[in-house]
What we know:
This protein starts with 6 loop residues before the first strand and ends in a 19-residue tail after the last strand. The chain has a four-stranded antiparallel beta sheet, with no helix packed on it. It has a three-stranded mixed beta sheet with strand order 6-9-8, covered by helices on one side. It contains three helices and nine strands; from the N terminus they run βαββββαββαββ. It has helices at 17-21, 87-99, 133-142, and strands spanning 7-13, 28-32, 38-50, 55-61, 81-86, 114-117, 122-126, 148-151, 157-161. The protein is of the alpha+beta class. Helix 2 runs antiparallel to helix 3 (133-142). The longest helix has 13 residues, at 87-99. A hairpin with a 4-residue loop joins strand 3 and strand 4.
Amino acid sequence: xxxxxxxxxxxxxxxxxxxxxxxxxxxxxxxxxxxxxxxxxxxxxxxxxxxxxxxxxxxxxxxxxxxxxxxxxxxxxxxxxxxxxxxxxxxxxxxxxxxxxxxxxxxxxxxxxxxxxxxxxxxxxxxxxxxxxxxxxxxxxxxxxxxxxxxxxxxxxxxxxxxxxxxxxxxxxxxxxxxx
Length: 180
């Protein structure tokens, strides 16, 4: 789905080495095209064994899904206020907030993504404690003149691209009930 995480699923033999070794959120799926370039990647988010069928169903979602499990923490509220700031810079700041969060032991637990905020639409936003970071990133994309989201599956750099950076396809010829 455009500007969303995307997904992948497969079933493998329940007693295969892969089924026995794979762990949710600790392993990922990497899909390569025939030339060897990485076309898609994402963390494994679900593993379901089907004993009667002797299969293991594995599901993965694109890396962007990690932000759906991050919320603005109370200590981050002052860093989540943006007055007339470019939306790409807001998105990049939200990614940095997610990547600086700590767990209950005080250990920093970053996502697997880094940000490149290049979108240039001026926005004003204030995010309270408890605001879901994934939802905030999607809202900035879905709003009129919002940015487009691109995640490089190899480097895991999430880019926030101005929606005006694409050239219109004016050379395409269409035909209805006739060859163009």
